Amino acid sequence: MKTIKSKIIAMLMVASGGAVIVGGSSLWTLWHVATVQERSERQADLSLATERINSAVTAVVMDSRGVYLAKTRDEVEKFARPNEERLRALGRMVAELGTKVGPDDRERFARLQAAVAEFIGFRTETIRLAREVSIAAADAQGNNDLNRKNRQALNDLLVSYSADNERLGDAFSAEARRVVSLAETTLPAALLAILCASFFGALRWTSRSVTRPLQDATAAMEVLAHGDVSVAIPHVDREDEIGTMARTLEVFRAHAEQMKALEAQERRAEAERAARAESMMAVVHDVGEVVAAAAAGDFSARLEIESTDDQMRKLVGGINEINAVVDRATTEFAEALGRVAKGDLTQTIATAYRGRFADLKMAINETIATLSETVATIQTTAVDVASASREIQSGADDLSRRTEEQASSLEQTAATTEELAASVKASAQASRHALETAEDAMRVAEGGGQIVSQAIDAMARIEQASQKISDITSVIDEIAFQTNLLALNAAVEAARAGEAGKGFAVVASEVRTLAQRSSEAAKDITGLITSSTTEVAQGVRLVRSAGESLDRIVSASRKVASTVDEISSAAAEQANGIDEMSQAVAHLDEMTQQNAALAEQSAASAASLTGQIERLNDVAATFRTGQGASAQGRPPAAPSEPARLRERAASAFAGRRAARG
């Protein structure tokens, strides 16, 4: 089928053919102009190079005259060295010109190259004669008709070569101007004609084949956009892109018609969903109340709803069943724990539960069983402990009485012994006290000496730290000086900047003020540190003097301590005999007093233990374990270990009394 794309491509191909013709002509013109321009530029370069060679030849001739007209060898060198440089430059110029010469100009260039080589050789020989032979020989060789003839021939060849290059360059330039003028007059007219024909042809075809059908389709789309799905879509039978678009629009119209039917169906479904959501909200509200009651500990609430939804009825039934199970379990568990709180350990939970409730039931039953066994054990043990405590109390009372009698006798003996040793001990004590006082004085003096040494070291460190702080303040002073200089420079630059630098000038002024304050503060600190250093040095001298005095005090204290030590030793030897006897009696009295105290404590502890055992029996009696009869019907316990100890103690005291009698 013929599509719009194929028609547009055909039109573009026709227009492109004309454009290709015009473009080809333009490219040929540009190529021709570029070729002519390149030749013209090459000829201009050749002319310029020829003129440079001619100028170099003239300069060589002038320097050669200076060589053979010189008066001395120094003057010869003055012109010879530059002339040699120019001759070498002349050779390079000719070689460079050879790279620019075209194939059709090689013969003329060869003649020019030979003439220049002959000229260079002639002038080089002139310089050699002036250096190695004489200036007169150089003058004879360089200032003659042959030289002038060689120079004239080279000049004529250069002029001819330059003139030919200029003529060819002018011809090439004229040809380029002619071609450009032709292109400027013919190419725009041809291009304009092709563009106009293409434009008007495309405009007419577009209006007939594209614009009008698109307007019809647009009108149909506007009607369809307003909701009228009964509109007829035009140009459906066309076989190009317009037809494809019309058929697509027809499909869209059919879909729109279906969408209207679906919208009506969706509105009905939405009404049903709204009714169901309202019912669901009521159920959710009831469920929320039941859950809130369960969270508050009330599991007796139940859900009662009327709904045709099977899933909703199952949900409500499940919630009610959960509440019933939890309510039944918590009630039974609370009753069991209440019985335990009242002391009844004979009943357990017998109802079968599952899951976590089964674990909780097992834990409660195990707790009741363990507590029952524990209480039964306590009741049995309490009877035994009560019997033993009564025996301990009886033995402790007997031991306490006998110990008190023994303590009274020993107390009288100890008093007599202490009075005898008092006078001797007083003397020894005074001696020891004097010795301790002397030793304390010596230690204090030695400690003072160490403190003085430490003070001297500390002052030395303070002096060093003051010196370091002084160095730091010097650095701060230098930084403040440099900052002041920078602030001055910044103020100068701000003044140069005029209005734009006023803000910077204010900042520079503030920085300068801060720098001056820093410098003044550093000077004040330096003065204070200098004063502190002087005071520290004076303190060091005073502390050293105090240290020397303390050394003398320590020496005297040592002598006093030695004397007092001798006195104390003599008094101690006198008191040793009496002290040993006094210590023996005192030790015996102390042991007796401790035994009496222990006996009293044992009696008090036994009495307290008896009371606590009775209270424990009262508490254990409040529990019912099913084992009370067996505990109460047990026979009396055998004599306990405390009773046997009491019998041994009584026999021991009886034996000691018989020995004394």
Protein model, in words:
The protein is mainly α and 661 residues long. Among the domains are: 4-218, Four Helix Bundle (Hemerythrin (Met), subunit A) (Up-down Bundle); 410-586, Methyl-accepting chemotaxis protein (Helix Hairpins). Helices cover 88% and strands 0% of the residues. It contains 11 helices and no strands. Residues 381-610 form the Methyl-accepting transducer domain.
Task: Give a concise summary.
The protein is mainly α.
Per-chain topology:
Blueprint: H1 4-68, H2 73-100, H3 106-133, H4 135-142, H5 145-225, H6 241-295, H7 310-341, H8 356-497, H9 502-621, H10 628-632, H11 641-660
Helix pairs in contact: 1-2, 1-3, 1-4, 1-5, 2-3, 3-4, 3-5, 5-6, 7-8, 8-9, 8-11
Biased composition (Low complexity): 406-415, 650-661
Domain HAMP: 208-261, 324-376
Region (Disordered): 393-415, 626-661
